[in-house]
Design goal:
The protein is mainly beta. The protein folds into 3 domains: about 170 residues, Immunoglobulins (Immunoglobulin-like, Sandwich); about 120 residues, Immunoglobulin-like (Sandwich), CATH 2.60.40; about 45 residues. Helices cover about 15% and strands about 50% of the residues. It is built from 1 helix and 22 strands. Strands 1, 2, 6, 8, 9, 11, 13 and 14 form an 8-stranded mixed β-sheet that branches. Strands 3, 4, 5, 7, 10 and 12 form a 6-stranded antiparallel β-sheet that branches. β13 and β14 form a beta hairpin. It starts with 11 loop residues before the first strand and ends with a helix. The N terminus is likely disordered. Keywords: Membrane, Signal, Transmembrane, Transmembrane helix. This is DUF916 domain-containing protein.
Length: about 350
């Protein structure tokens, strides 16, 4: 959705330590007057059109970058500047740690001024430094930078902040890997013996590599020792290194006639940067389940009962007909003898 907004609106917003949808700008009332502002990547001259900052750097590298703070209000504002580790929320939105949380990764690589004063309806470019530790491990070290205003109304102070991602990658071997964990499979049958059921499955997708990835995969359910099967596609949302997310899928057209196998395959894809040199590690997990086809068994029993009943009735009719024929023959013989 961000790509449909003006370039300078591609920002992340956090109010009261919660991620909000990216607006054109954020508003707060620190001293009774409304403050509206935006923050975006820049060069030394001003905003440069990037949505976020992204670099692949060697350990020990020191790099100067810039951010632009735009004050849309009618009065000067002093903004607090912050850099912190980045993470993804449960809904998959990028966020950064709050001021009260300690950063231990990419957020510690960024050094920027504590505050910046931006005049009314002006834009101020702020340089900041990225210093990659000499012992930085290869892979992604996500961070974010933000400009913050604290509202002083009432008894509770509320911090409003606007910022953007700083996606930092330390050079070295890039590994894209997603591990499938805690795979559970449940067959959901139909009581209609002429209708198939389905398989519902859940699993935990964990980024076991060192770069941000998404995953494309398939789920195949095979029956009758592999003679029949159904396949559906699945998708793993963006995962930062070490992150995990639960994935669900449903495969229809599964009858559940005894033994069935479920195979999950996931192939990771690098989200940012050049994936050409990445070591991509697909994952395949298979589990086997058993189900009793009760509707078909009940139907078969009923059919069997009806068939046995029909056979019994047919036998009785044949016996009755045989008796009637025997009686007719006997009466015929008696009539002949009486005539003699």
């Amino acid at each position: 959705m961000i790509r449909f907004l003006p370039r300078w609106a591609a920002v992340l917003v956090t109010m009261s330590a919660m991620m909000l949808p990216a607006p054109v700008a954020a508003s707060a009332q620190p001293t009774g007057a409304t403050v509206t502002w935006a923050v975006q990547p820049a060069d030394a001259r001003g905003p440069d059109g990037r949505r976020w900052i992204e670099h692949t750097l060697d350990p020990g590298t020191v790099l100067t970058e810039h951010l632009a703070v735009r004050n849309f209000g009618d009065a000067p504002v002093v903004f607090a500047l912050q850099a912190a580790d980045g993470y993804l929320t449960d809904k998959g939105r990028f966020n950064m740690l709050t001021a009260g949380q300690e950063s231990v990764d990419g957020g510690t690589w960024i050094t920027l001024p504590e505050t910046v004063t931006v005049e009314a309806r002006q834009t101020t470019v702020v340089p900041f430094t990225i210093t990659v530790p000499p012992d930085a491990t290869p892979g992604d070290h996500p961070a974010g930078v933000a400009a913050t205003v604290t509202s002083a109304g009432g008894t509770v102070a509320v911090q409003s902040r606007v910022g953007f991602r700083v996606m930092l990658r330390a050079s070295g071997t890039v590994t894209a890997a997603v591990t499938v964990e805690d795979l559970t499979v449940r067959h959901e049958g139909s009581w209609n013996p002429f209708a198939s059921g389905g398989v519902h499955l859940t699993y935990t997708a964990r980024n076991s590599g060192n770069v941000a990835v998404t995953g494309a995969g398939t789920v195949r359910v095979g029956e009758l020792f592999g003679l029949t099967g159904r396949t559906v596609s699945t998708a793993v949302p963006e995962l930062l290194p070490g992150d995990s997310r639960q994935v669900e899928a449903h495969v229809g057209g599964v009858w559940g006639l005894g033994r069935y196998s479920t195979t999950v395959e996931v192939t990771p894809a690098v989200v940012t940067g050049d994936p050409a040199d990445a070591q991509v590690r697909p994952t395949t997990v298979t589990v086997t389940g058993w189900t009793v086809p009760w509707p078909q068994l009940v139907f078969g029993v009923l059919v069997g009962i009806l068939l046995l009943g029909w056979l019994a009735i047919a036998r009785r009719r044949r016996r009755r007909l045989a008796r009637m024929l025997d009686q007719a023959r006997a009466e015929g013989r008696e009539s002949v003898l009486a005539a003699d």
